[in-house]
Amino acid sequence: MPSLSEIYRQIAECKDCELHKQRNRVVPGEGAEPATIFFIGEAPGWHEDQQGRPFVGPAGKFLDEMLTAIGLVRSEVYIGNVIKCRPPANRDPLPTEIQACQKWLNLQLEQIKPRLIVTLGRYSMAKFFPGKTISKVHGTWYRRDGIIYFAMYHPAAALHQSDLRQTIINDMKKIPPLLTELNKISGTEISEIPETKDTHQQLTMF
């Protein structure tokens, strides 16, 4: 299996879809290696395309604030996207682009070996929650083969729909008790994660 650095090199040279023609920089992902938590977003935006790093724009700032509020920092988790190059004008990724890029995400998952995968938005959700809609599945989880899959709205949704901001915060605050109970949870049914008083208090800052 290639190392992450080798995977990054291969991503930087990838020409498997049309997005390579207009990208400024590829955005493979970054974070701990290995990592207990892998946050998977949709695609790079303008800021990410300029810096080659995931979630560095306004949505990334919101994500960082939420991580801090639940006692985590970026260096302790891994953050990436379904596709590694910015779509023109930040449009939605096309099915052919997702298909072309999925091998990179699969290799990252094999190398990073997360125990908790957090999907951010409907495109990463679709990979792990097939046939579901994000309005119904956000804030829920299931466990399969020792990995927990947890669905959330994309942080950018809070920037476009202010009424979703608290919903996203409420979903994020389910992560600490989920980590605490990680070794005790069994089964594959989608279910709710209980909230804790301490976690709720941590997030009142928002």
In summary, what is this structure?
With 206 residues, the chain is α/β, with parallel strands linked by helices.
What's the CATH class label?
Answer: Alpha Beta
- Segments where pLDDT lies below 50 for 5+ residues? 195-206
Overall mean pLDDT stands at 90
DSSP strand content: 5-15%
Shape: globular
Q: Write down the domain tally.
A: 1
Verbal overview:
The chain is an alpha/beta fold. The protein has a single domain (4-205), classed as Uracil-DNA Glycosylase, subunit E, CATH 3.40.470.10. The chain has helices at residues 4-12, 46-51, 58-69, 95-112, 122-128, 134-137, 156-160, 165-172, 175-180, 197-202, and strands at 30-31, 37-41, 78-81, 116-120, 140-144, 147-152, 191-192. A hairpin with a 2-residue loop joins β5 (140-144) and β6 (147-152). The protein is globular and about 45 Å long.
Ordered list of secondary-structure elements with their pairings:
Elements: H1 4-12, E1 30-31, E2 37-41, H2 46-51, H3 58-69, E3 78-81, H4 95-112, E4 116-120, H5 122-128, H6 134-137, E5 140-144, E6 147-152, H7 156-160, H8 165-172, H9 175-180, E7 191-192, H10 197-202
Parallel strand pairs: 2-3, 2-4, 4-6
Antiparallel strand pairs: 1-3, 5-6, 5-7
Search tags:
single chain, 206 residues, alpha/beta, Uracil-DNA Glycosylase, subunit E, 7-stranded mixed sheet, 39% helix, disordered C terminus
